Amino acid sequence: MLELGESIPDGLRREVREETGLTVKPDALTGVYKNLACGVVALVFRCHATGGVLAATDEAGDFRWLHRDELAAPLTPAYAVRLTDALDYAGIPAVRAHDGTHVLAGL
Question: Does residue 39 carry a pLDDT above 70?
Fold first, then answer.
């Protein structure tokens, strides 16, 4: 969540630092996702690390590298699609709606 008066890039960098210990530079907005059940809109960015040390936190207790075909197992479809959209990004961000678990057809 962005703090009042915080820019989107600053909030992104803060959240990633708090959750992973890494400092990042945003490269591209790869998707916009609305959780219709909660009324929350998430912006997903592809970033690259510029510093810091990857570390477990209260919000992210585990990290691992996954191949594309392994994304579905640990994640719900609504979250796995964010990663595949970021991997497939070709200059136009995906815009999707979901119910908290499943991606819904159309907007």
Answer: yes
In this predicted structure, the answer to whether residue 24 has a pLDDT above a threshold of 80 is: yes
Tell me which residue has tokens 């990290």: 63
Tens digits of per-residue pLDDT, 41-59? 999 999 999 999 999 888 8
pTM reported for the whole predicted model:
0.88
Pick from 43, 49, 35: nearest CA to 12:
43
Distance in angstroms (rounded) separating the CA atoms of residues 8 and 35 = 19
**Amino acid letter for position 55:** A
Domains and CATH numbers, the chain: 8-93 (3.90.79.10)
Q: Answer yes or no: are the C-beta atoms of 9 and 45 closer than 8 Å.
A: no
Distances (CA, A) of 17 to 42, 54, 55, 83, 106: 18, 9, 10, 19, 33
